Amino acid sequence: CLMAAFRSALKIVHPSSTTRRFDKELLAMDVDILMTALKVAQDEQLKATQAIVQADRKTPVVAPYKYPSKAEGGIPNPEEIGLPFGLAELKQQNQSKFMSTRDKGDKEETLTFSQSVPLVVRSIHARAIACASFALSQEELGQSFLQKKGSGSACYVLDCVEECVNVAAVGMKDSEGNADDQDIDKAVQVMANVAALQHSLPRLFGTLMRGMTHVGMIRSDQLAETFQYAEATLKGADKACDNQVGTMYSRVYECARGKIDAHLNYALEGFNWVQKSVRESPNAYCEGLIGYIRNVFDSLGPMDEGSRAGLHFSCCGHVAERMVKILSERPLAEGARPSAGSIAPISKIDAFGLKNLSSDVNEFKRFASKTGVPQLADCFDELKSITDAMLDPELPDLLRPENSDVRKRKYPYVSLEKIGNILEKYTTGGMSIMGGGRAPAGMLTLDKKEVVALLNLVRSYK
């Protein structure tokens, strides 16, 4: 504003000329002055965002109490003080299915974002106002700008907002560094914060367009084209937020997957699957893993419903995939070592080990069903199908060539290769007379000759 006043006075006492060399340099600088302002606003927005998120505790904001009122059709609710551009609408849904009814009633209602989001949104709004004021002052001084589609100076302001949103989303995403070094709940909160910024964009752009129209920056004959340009810049800003939300989603999943792998590797390293008796409760690794995954799912409250469900499927699908590989892949050759971050497939397992694993699978499915995410339990269908097939007394008949269609209908996820790999590990030591348990009714047990015969039958298929 000081520079605008100075130039206004300068033009009165010393009108510019296109022939004087110094005036040419000033005029050339004037042509790019809005682009310079845009670059300064972009740099300042990134610095401001980094400072704001650094002071953020990454905990959701408590939702303000709102008195019940009759909603008018088609009219948005009035803005909440301190929660501009529709942020007050982003209330968390309580997703925990494991809380008591009393605990749910006592818990405060929270919003999806933390305290940094309103500050970042207001800082973007403030820079947009400053850019619009600067552009208007330049036009009042007689400065003309390269015309874009629509009103020229207003489109520069919209460009400024789009770039500020872009760098703000990047600054919010980078606030937590790598997911490996951070808690999942904080990474989830950063993702929700960027999503909240994205949610505020339509109202932010609408407010700016109304303001620029009121101060005369948008002429009536350019109104339609300028609004089209606003739609394009809004889409660009929305896409920039989408990219950062996607990056944070991947980061959250990678962190959760890494901890799931670490838990499985620790719990199953050297685990004895020749168990000689049927357990009455799931194996310890199963209960521990379910407890960890439950904590992960409980921390996903700030996420939107689609992302939350997607992460449920990703985590459960990863557990099921790891367990299928551990059970059905061929054991490592003597002297070979598993790849980094993984454990070797099971080398020996008996009928009781398979039965207890089947109980673990049922426990995984029960847990998945209680989350309330539709079809989540289906993630464990392949693992359950394999264990059920290996315990089915009809398996020897189902493996005969003439019963191939019947077997595929009953166990569509089970391949002969996986059955053969498990038969190679199958041991009858747990069912010996010395110390062996009694097999329950309906559970397939094989002696050594039967295992060899079935393995030869499976391997004979081409």
UniProtKB/TrEMBL annotation:
GO terms for biological process: Golgi to plasma membrane transport; intracellular protein transport; vesicle tethering involved in exocytosis. One of its GO terms (cellular component) is membrane. Keywords: Coiled coil. Coiled coil: none annotated. It comes from the Eukaryota. It holds the Pfam family Sec15_C. Residues 110-425 form the Exocyst complex subunit EXOC6/Sec15 C-terminal domain. This is Exocyst complex subunit EXOC6/Sec15 C-terminal domain-containing protein. It comes from Pseudo-nitzschia delicatissima.
